[in-house]
Amino acid sequence: METVAIIGTGLIGASFGLALKKAGFRGRILGVSSRAAVAEALTSGAIDEAAPLGQAVAGADLVYLSQTIGRILETLPRIAPRVREGALVTDAGSTKSRIVEVARRSLGRGQFLGGHPMAGKERRGAGEADADLFAGRAYVLTPGSAAELETPAAREFLSFIRKIGATPLVLSPEEHDRVVALTSHLPQLLSTALAAMLARRLGRPEHLRAAGPGLADMTRLAGSSYELWGDILSTNAAAIDSALEACIAELESLRAGLASENTRREFETANEFWERIRR
Length: 279
Hints:
Layout: E1 3-7, H1 11-22, E2 28-32, H2 35-44, E3 49-50, H3 53-58, E4 62-65, H4 69-79, E5 88-91, H5 97-106, E6 111-117, E7 138-142, H6 152-163, E8 167-170, H7 173-201, H8 213-218, H9 226-235, H10 237-256, H11 261-278
Parallel strand pairs: 1-2, 1-4, 2-3, 4-5, 5-6, 7-8
Antiparallel strand pairs: 6-7
């Protein structure tokens, strides 16, 4: 792998570029994004040069799509004629089924391997990029078959995933979307709903002084941008609806039995899960 094209040089794309360099990649890293975004990525050292989309893809051994989901879906058909034989195209989109479907339909050359690094921040942009963003995190891959992980391009990509400190996790696109609806999308919506409800219900600004650090913890994700999340919600609506339904049922159960033995059991189950996450 000598040339990498990062399409979308925001937080994830720029962090991937920095992580590759820290892991020992010595080739060229090309960046494709808005003028302001590539300028910021150049300043941070995440990319070596800016390039037009077609030129970057045509020269790349690895094409890394780190745009919003909607932009990834638009970009895949556009780059299809320029992808080199033997090149690997991957993405960092937060939902997978729709992206994998479009990629398989669009790309006639090269190989596509869906991906989703389970890492991020509330703030976006190359200025927030971090070479260690992926360290200690799972990196989901969604191949169509186990053989797709054994091609030379895929094996080299897997090697770099490990070198940047991430742990590969192989799921089908459908399983990925069901799981992240529970582990990622539901927490975001709960944080957003809590913050929006409190914004309407707290009567005076000084009431916030009655809040402890738990409120800051619970509303941390409320700082996330709808520009990013709108695509996630629309491309994983069914799984998210199912997750919300389960959560609403859980809240209704707690509401019906406050201070009951059932609530005690719920606290105990939650305590055990909390310990598992931290281990």
